């Protein structure tokens, strides 16, 4: 673009300048206009696009990571960062309050691989203090995975079997599993959402020494 | 050749200017999204129902969920209120395994929350009011408000959300009835 306009722009200027007061010939103005347009296009397109992208990705500022689990304790509060606020407004979220509970989301297993709906996982370990907790398998939008069966892809702490040391072992699979079975179904990416209700860890001071269960991949359907 | 370099320099200048502009636009758009969003919780709820009307948020009541919330093992209901018209009282008789409540402002920020352990006898009876209304109420507390939880909120428009735990299918009718009996009313004072 610069190559073709460059010579065009200089020639008339040379021709007219001896004439005197006419200092801004039209090809020069056209080039300026094009460059201004380019700047504006980059500014508006890039600015708008980057906001859209920043709000689309799950990850964000203000996250607290414990093992594979991520929580956003500040989301939906007046002290949240501008990105969380924009996401709350755009998605119409009504986030859990501090006295209600705190949600953790996992998108990877202990070896760092993305969670897949066609794979079998073991979720095992101790759970922090809470009145109760719920665990469900979620799709991209963090809604519960549709199983197509009466059984929900969700478990809660009143309905699980415990080990003698009070830890819990959960098998998440499409196939029936002994012990605590979290039914999943379908193909593609999956998330686990673990929510603790009426829990002291929802206050930020309680989050420092919390340990959450590990997610280990057992195998996948071919 | 010199004119080519000059043109390229101008192009580079324009691109750099564009990138700086993109940064500014990014910040402006980000700060304006909450102001102009038509997909926030308030807008969605106002499309579904009027002020002071309890609306189920989960899909259980039929149709798609109004507001993307929630735990599949939870039911939720919400009502919008406007404290400019007076204080609002929310009641829900009955007992469920766990309920919790949040008060949100117009833009969906959680400004107050509590759960059934906070309430007298585990029965949900709450009044949301502004600090100025609180002063008026304190002067002469009516008899029937004695046991209520007062939520002082420095807002006008807001959303009140009740969430209740459904441990298994057998609890579904009980929790649904709990929500059907809940009320959200402008309180005369």
TrEMBL record, chain A:
InterPro entries: DUF1214, DUF1214_C_sf, UCP009471. Keywords: Membrane, Transmembrane, Transmembrane helix. Residues 101-199 form the DUF1214 domain. The chain crosses the membrane at residues 33-55. This is DUF1214 domain-containing protein. It comes from Mesorhizobium qingshengii.
TrEMBL record, chain B:
It holds the Pfam family DUF1254. Residues 78-182 form the DUF1254 domain. The lineage of its organism: Bacteria, Pseudomonadati, Pseudomonadota, Alphaproteobacteria, Hyphomicrobiales. The keyword Transmembrane applies. InterPro entries: DUF1254, UCP010244_IM. Keywords: Membrane, Transmembrane, Transmembrane helix. It comes from the Bacteria. The chain crosses the membrane at residues 12-33. This is Uncharacterized membrane protein.
